[in-house]
Amino acid sequence: MRWCSSPRRGRTGVTSRLTRTRTAGTASRTTRRAASACRSAFTGFCSGTPTCTWFRPAAWTRSRANRSRARKTRSRPERRRVCRSPTGTRPRPRSATRRCPRAGGRSTSKSSDLLSTPTGATVVPRRSAFTLIELLVVIAIIAILIGLLLPAVQKVREAAARMKCSNNLKQLALAAHNYHATYEKLPPINNSAVGTWPVHLFPYLEQDQLYQRWVAAGTLQARGAGGANSILATVVPGLLCPSDPFPAPVYNRGVFGLFTPDGKYEGLCSYGANNGAQLPANNAKDGVFYNDSAVKLLAITDGTSNTVMFGDGYHRDPRWGQLMGTGSDTMEGYAAWSGGPFFIQRSALVGVNYRIPPTLATPPTGASNPEYYKRVFAFASGHTGGANVSMCDGSVRFFRDSLPLITLQELCTTASGNVANPD
Fold first, then answer.
1. Which ranges are annotated Polar residues under compositional bias (predicted)?
2. Extents of the domains making up the chain
C-alpha cells in the first residue's frame, strides 16, 4: 500500500517523521505535497504540519524499523562512540579515548596529553599502567637475574686476568731465551753493572728506550731524579699481574738519603725470578737466578720443562700491616723492579699461596725471622686455586694450592736429580 512520499529517503513509504525544514513558512514543495497526502489518507490523525507524527500500525513499524536497521548495518561500518562538545561532534574510537569530557566539564589529564581536533573536541588518550603487584614481581625477577649474573661476570673477569698473567709470564720466558741467545747465559737476579733481572730483559720486552735511559743515567741517584717522573718510576705493564692488588703501579718510599727533595718513586713488579729452595741469605745457588749468576740452559740437568723460571706473586696479606706496623696490608714496598735483589725473586720456602698464620705474634722483620722471607718470596697470586709460573722451556703452568712443598722445591732446583711433575 502506498501511504506517503518520503523526500528524506527518496522512496515511497510511511515514515515516523517528515522531512525537517528550517521554518514552516519556507518548507519545500515536496514536503507540503507529502503533508497533504498524509492528511487525505488519515484525516483527523495528522495536524497538517510538516513535522507532525501520525498513526501507523505497530507491527508494520517494527518490521520497517528492523529492515532499516539491517540495511544500515550492511551498508555502514560499526558506529563509534561520539564525543560531543560545545563546538562540534566527532567520532572517537573506543581504544583511543578514556572518557568523553562534557560541555563545562573538566579533564583530569595534563594539557600535553590532550589531542585537539578541527571541531574543537578534546580527547584524552587511553593509558595502560602496571599494578603494584606486577611492578614488585618484575623487580624481584630482575634482582634474581642480577644475583645469578654477578658470579658469572666475576668468573669471566678472573679468567681474563689469569690469561693476561699467563701471557706476561710467557713474554718474560721468551725474553730470557732471547737474552740467552745473545749472551749464552741467563740474566742474574742482580749485579752492580746493570741492575736487576728486569733491566737486563728490557731490550727484549719492547722497552729498549727505557734501557738506554737507564744505562745513560749511570747512578741510582740520577735514575731517581725527578720523583714521579724519574726513570725508577716508569711503569712497565708486562711486569704487573692484573690480580695483584697494588694501590698504584708506582710506590713512593718518601724522602731519604740521596732522594731529596722529590723522594724515591719506584715502578712495581708482580713477578719474581726463581732463586731455588733455600733462604736467599744462604746464597745456595741452587736456583736458576741468583746474584751475579750466569746459568746456561744446558746446566739445568733436571730438564727445562721441569724447572721453574719465573713465578707470580701476591702483595697483600691481612696480617702484614699488623705485624710490620705499617698500617696497610699491601706489600708494595717489596715489589719494585729496581729496588734490590730481595724484592723480585721467588723461593720454595713455603707452599703456593702462603699467608702469614694468625697465630704468629712476632713481627717478621729482619733476616733473623724466617717468616719475613717466607711471605715475601712465596709463590702466590690473586687467582683462584693457585698461581701461574713459567718454566725454563718457555711454557706456562698453573700450580695448585695443594701442590706438596717437596714437589715445589724439586721444581725450583736445577740439578737435584729428581724429576718432579706438578700435575
1. 106-120
2. 1-67, 161-412
